Amino acid sequence: MNDSISSFQFRIDWLSFSFRVSSIATAHDIFSFFISFSGDNLIPDDIGFRNNGRLYQHSYKSIFGSMLFLAPVQDGSYYDCCASICATSLPANSMDFLPAFHYANKIHAKFTRIDLACDDYSKSLTPEFLYSRCLAGDLKGFRKFKYIHEAFNTEVGIKDSGFTLYCGSQKSDKFYRIYDKNLESKGLIDAIRFEFVAKNSYAQKIADLFRYHLNSPDAFPLCSSELPDDSIELEFSRRASGMVDLISSIIFGNLFFIDRSSDSNVSRCVSADYYSSFLSLLNSSLRKLSVISKKPRLYDSLQWLLRSCSGTLSMIRKYMASKSTEFLHLLFEVGDTNFESNRRLQSLLKQSLYMPSIV
Questions:
Q1: What is the residue range of 12's domain?
Q2: 62, 129, 309, 316, 324 from 12: Cα distances, Å
Q3: Letter string b/e over residues 160-196, b meaning 16 or more CB atoms within 10 A of that residue's CB
């Protein structure tokens, strides 16, 4: 999706989501629908792929680089699917994107990653300048940041993408990339790119905001057969414009550069003048994402062991034969020692004692 506000252009740059279907053919049709707006096509791959400890046995790739993986469940009566759609496979404009996302809601897709991007053609805030402000302590909301030189080996040589400022950890559920898109795109996009990467609960939060926007109570249903064609087109156009404001508000509602001299309490510090001036150009309200962290449960740990460690333990048993029992006893002895010094595990055990059996 690619729309503009003044000297800014916004787009959804990456989508990852999971869904469940009854056949490979159905998964193929669903994925083809999502990439059809850009003229992309699927290529059967059938190379296994492991994601979060799970093996997906069937796969498709698209010409533009998107991927679909499928894993049969139980007796093969249905399939769990994992789809990743890159920017070049996504719809080119908002009006095409709305029915695609509407369809994602229809199949009850669970979003695991959404990348939102803003291209600033004025280049008013450069990665170099923002890095200097991070060093000065202006960055709020992220404890980690780094400024690195991006270079990749390709078939034709080294691709130099310049310097990138990362705000937040790349292993966390939300972080930012800020870089000069002109160098990365080889002159096609002469702008500073702000990318907001949201994963897991944050991605689902964004999906919920999109869902609310698509089904806002002040708008008539998109699929009403009683509406004339021109009215439906007008409604799509109106909602498409609103999506631009929504994406803008999410990207810059979660990135803060503050004036620490304005107050001794960081939470009360106002935005730095240079950042306030930048935000005023956007002319959109800011929307901060907040999610409730899921408390760890013993059940989750057991499920993780089944997914990730059962195969390894089986290999050890087959390899060590009669000595495998001795190894398991040693494993538990080492585990008991670690348990005594780990308060988090002790607290988890106390919580589980008051819950029904989970085995």
A1: 3-282
A2: 18, 26, 36, 45, 51
A3: ebebbbbbbeeeebbbbbbbbbbbbeeeebebbbbbb
Domain count of the fold of the chain:
2
Tens of pLDDT, residue by residue over 87-110, are 888 766 655 566 667 777 778 889
Residue 213's SS3 state is helix
In a domain? residue 290: no
292 in a domain, yes or no?
A: no
What are the respective helix, strand and coil percentages of the chain, to the nearest 5?
40, 30, 30
The pair of structure tokens assigned to 85 is 């759609």
Q: Tell me which amino acid residue 323 is.
A: K
Whether residue 90 lies inside any domain: the answer is: yes
User: Which of 179-193, 292-306, 321-335 tops mean pLDDT?
Assistant: 179-193
Report which secondary-structure segment, H or E, holds 204.
helix 201-214
Residues 114 and 210 in one domain: yes
